[in-house]
């Protein structure tokens, strides 16, 4: 797959790879092979052109991810506190660079190539604090565009209030919901189980032939 350089006029982004992959058995599901490439490589190649800088958020032995050539940031606060901890880490990093942070999931190999653009358009049009995609009637909170001005509030929610679910935090804020078509497939299809990986193999064949 072709690796594309980041876009200078785009926001910085973070890929959330801090989950524990319980439903896939041992090991990181985003390191499983998909048509000869790790799932994470598919994600990186899809979202890197949509960002000005890109980092990975992961936990555990970070050296296992150095071959992807991106900076790696562990959760801060630490302790496997869920995706909000990863987003909080990213907001703190991004605040010195931009007013926004794009957020992506590491187990979703086929995100739209206009994702960040459409999220940014909706966020500005609705004067929202966060924009998240929607497909098949479902919000995908581990993707989104966040204002970095939320960083202190999010840290307090995670550390002091024990907030763990992205949806709970979103419910208390102005959120732009951005619909995406799910035909011929849902671009936010994520790989949780072995049967999902088999389905992804079929979808990946479409990308490699196009």
TrEMBL record:
GO molecular function, one term: molybdenum cofactor guanylyltransferase activity
Compartment(s): Cytoplasm
Any one GO cellular component localisation term in the record: cytoplasm
Binding-site positions, Mg(2+): 107
MobA-like NTP transferase domain location: 13-167
Superkingdom of origin: Bacteria
Keyword Ligase included in the entry's annotation: no
BP-aspect Gene Ontology terms: bis(molybdopterin guanine dinucleotide)molybdenum biosynthetic process
Enzyme nomenclature, EC number: 2.7.7.77
Enzymatic reactions: Mo-molybdopterin + GTP + H(+) = Mo-molybdopterin guanine dinucleotide + diphosphate
A Pfam match: NTP_transf_3
Residues annotated as signal peptide: none
Keyword terms: Cytoplasm, GTP-binding, Magnesium, Metal-binding, Molybdenum cofactor biosynthesis, Nucleotide-binding, Nucleotidyltransferase, Transferase
Residues involved in GTP binding: 16-18, 29, 57, 75, 107
Enzyme class: transferase
Entry-linked SUPFAM superfamilies: Nucleotide-diphospho-sugar transferases (SSF53448)
Cofactor requirements of the protein: Mg(2+)
Function as written in the Swiss-Prot or TrEMBL entry: Transfers a GMP moiety from GTP to Mo-molybdopterin (Mo-MPT) cofactor (Moco or molybdenum cofactor) to form Mo-molybdopterin guanine dinucleotide (Mo-MGD) cofactor.
Subunit structure: Monomer.
Comment block on domains: The N-terminal domain determines nucleotide recognition and specific binding, while the C-terminal domain determines the specific binding to the target protein.
Family according to the record: Belongs to the MobA family.
Full protein name: Molybdenum cofactor guanylyltransferase
Organism: Arboricoccus pini
Taxonomic lineage: Bacteria, Pseudomonadati, Pseudomonadota, Alphaproteobacteria, Geminicoccales
Gene name of the encoded protein: mobA
């Amino acid at each position: 797959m072709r690796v594309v350089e980041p876009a200078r006029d785009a926001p910085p982004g973070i890929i959330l790879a801090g989950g524990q992959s319980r439903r896939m058995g041992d090991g990181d599901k985003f390191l499983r092979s998909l048509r000869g490439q790790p799932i994470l490589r598919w994600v990186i190649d899809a979202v890197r052109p949509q960002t000005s800088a890109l980092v990975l958020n992961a936990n555990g032995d970070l050296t296992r991810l150095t071959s992807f050539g991106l900076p790696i940031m562990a959760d801060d606060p630490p302790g496997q506190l869920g995706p909000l901890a990863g987003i909080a880490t990213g907001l703190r990093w991004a605040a010195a660079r931009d007013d926004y942070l794009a957020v992506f999931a590491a187990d979703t190999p086929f995100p739209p190539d206009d994702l960040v653009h459409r999220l940014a358009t909706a966020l500005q049009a609705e004067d929202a604090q966060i924009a998240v995609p929607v497909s098949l009637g479902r919000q995908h909170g581990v993707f989104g565009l966040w204002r970095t001005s939320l960083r202190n509030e999010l840290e307090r929610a995670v550390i002091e209030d024990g907030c763990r679910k992205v949806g709970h935090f979103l419910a208390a804020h102005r959120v732009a919901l951005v619909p995406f078509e799910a035909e011929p497939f849902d671009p936010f299809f994520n790989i949780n189980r072995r049967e999902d990986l088999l389905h992804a193999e079929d979808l990946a064949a479409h990308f490699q032939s196009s």
